Here is the input.
Amino acid sequence: MKKIAVLTSGGDAPGMNAAIRAVVRKSIFQGIVINGIRRGFHGLVNEEIEPLGVSSVADIIHRGGTRLHTARSDEFLTAEGQGEAIAFLTREKIEGLIVIGGEGSFKGANVLDKAGIPTIGIPATIDNDIPCTDYCVGFDTALNTVTDAINKLRDTTSSHERVSVLEVMGRFTGHIALLAGLAGGAESIIVPEVSFNLLEIRNRLLRGLNRGKLHSIILVAEGAGSAIEIGRELEHLTGMDIRVTTLGHLQRGGTPSAFDRILASRLGAKAVDLLEDGQSGLATGYLQGEIVATSYEKVFSEKKQFSREDYELASILAN
Ligand code: F6P
Here is the structure.
């Protein structure tokens, strides 16, 4: 393998830069020429390429976002766009591509793989919704951002003896809400994986009030419903003073945690090793303490486990 490329795609996640750095420096260490594709699959279709050297990834390990920029490309979803991307990679003599992103990005990588361009995926999304890895790059940082937001909300919520409803990201899943709720001691956690009943949440709030609890935090995963509507409904049901906060894209930014940087560095190095070994069609991951590689097919056919155990635990501890 003489020449490969790397891109970041989909929603950015803290630690993507650390992954780019690892891919670039490991490639160069192994004598492979490495190029960056800007703006994800959009950049592949539009031929946005840059050679990357050791210094081009200096001073980025601690930065959120992605140095290569990212995009959600409609063009690449068409057969024509895919044909242009394949022709471009072939013309550039790119022998392998490393795709850093979520499951949608791996689907794009799979198209190229099937067309004969070896690809390896690095899971990076704050949603942590990719199976075959316990952690995706960016999840830990987002979790800490949400936990910090809960701490801050708790100050004002307890001062005013109110209820705060906090909406967090996660797309169709509740992994961020669950673990941030556990870490932040949220009184209720509403996620798409578990059906919920506002009357039960109301009863829980009233039980708390009766035993002298003067404030509560309710976490809502965006995939489970709108925090604004849930807050309005609960205010109506309880007569309590309720405020709603939507954390939004704040969750995607910030300095990556040490955990995310280390994970990104290990997965980046592994991706280069896999390509050099002649392997392809694989997503790297971190499972039970091991760096592993799993076929895209397996990743696509499975669903990331939602921990009912942690959900029950959070509920018991917040009682
Ligand atoms: O996948 C990451 C994510 O932040 C989701 O949690 C959220 O639903 C979505 O991306 C938001 O996308 P956009 O940045 O396009 O608004």
